[in-house]
Automatic annotation (TrEMBL):
A Pfam entry, by short name: FCD
InterPro entries: GntR_C (IPR011711), TF_FadR/GntR_C (IPR008920), Tscrpt_reg_HTH_GntR (IPR000524), WH-like_DNA-bd_sf (IPR036388), WH_DNA-bd_sf (IPR036390)
Gene source species: Rhodoferax ferrireducens
PROSITE patterns: HTH_GNTR
Name of the molecule in the record: DNA-binding FadR family transcriptional regulator
Transcription found in the keyword field: yes
Keyword Nuclease: no
Domain annotation HTH gntR-type: ranges: 12-80
Keywords: DNA-binding, Transcription, Transcription regulation
Single GO MF descriptor: DNA binding
Highest taxon of source: Bacteria
SUPFAM superfamilies: GntR ligand-binding domain-like (SSF48008), Winged helix' DNA-binding domain (SSF46785)
CDD domains, A to Z: WHTH_GntR (cd07377)
Length: 238
């Protein structure tokens, strides 16, 4: 192993230390947004580790929205770690919630259609892992809010379109968490409600898996429409 490269990036597993080294390189300006990273083979040789070890570090960089990867084209830097994100538009009324869900539907339908068209096997694996984590959280009686955001981000990343990833990460997800916070405090999801939501998510995963952009867009449209309905039901006074 090339200890000189990994010695100064702290402790942790090899993938964690490679991740930290790449992040440092991006922050130093060695790799700016839109610049390509070295290939897996080059990074493995540089650090003296196996390609699966490098792959694990790159997967974490993708998960954090720092890079995007395409088969045959390598990995490209999307944004610098810690770079400022867009400030979410404030929600001040029920009308704003209506507008937000209309906006969200447009964005996520496009992301789902793109995911169905451009997804790769690694994207499907990440999507299924996010889906399983969300199901586990919901069945345990937890809100599953964080897991749900990761599920929708996995869809966006499967589109291999950084604009979808950035918009969902910086605009859709923060507003959604704000809207759903009050509901999650008091709302105890029934088993029927959990199963209904799981079926909506499963329809999205299935459409992306079979490469059906139209079905994927429609499945996520129905899911977001139902999510809005559930929000408004929770705001009704007894």
């Amino acid at each position: 192993m090339n200890e000189s490269l990994l010695h100064n990036v702290g402790v942790g597993s090899l993938p964690d230390r490679i991740y930290a080294h790449v992040v440092e390189s991006i922050l130093r300006g060695d790799f700016a947004p839109s610049n390509k990273l070295p290939t897996e083979g080059a990074l493995a040789s540089q650090f003296g580790v196996s390609r699966p070890t490098v792959r694990e570090a790159l997967a974490r960089l993708r998960s954090d929205g720092i890079i995007d990867s395409k088969r045959g084209a390598g990995s490209t830097v999307i944004r610098a770690p810690g770079s400022p994100v867009v400030v979410a538009t404030p929600i001040k009324s029920l009308a704003d919630i209506e507008r937000y869900y209309a906006f969200r539907s447009c964005i996520e339908m496009g992301a789902a259609a793109g995911a169905a068209e451009f997804r790769e096997e690694a994207d499907l694996e990440a999507l299924r892992q996010a889906f399983d984590a969300l199901n586990t959280a919901m069945e345990a009686g937890h809100s599953g809010a964080d897991e749900d955001v990761r599920f929708h981000l996995a869809i966006a990343r499967a589109s291999h379109n950084p604009f979808f990833v950035t918009t969902i990460d910086t605009s859709v997800a923060p507003i959604r968490q704000f809207i759903e916070l009050a509901r999650n405090i008091t709302d105890k999801k029934s088993l029927e409600r959990v199963r209904t939501t799981q079926a909506e998510h499963q329809a999205i995963v299935d459409a992306i898996t079979r490469r059906s952009p139209g079905d994927a867009a429609e499945a996520i449209r129905i899911h977001i429409l139902n999510a809005k309905r559930r929000i408004f039901e929770s705001t009704q006074l007894p």
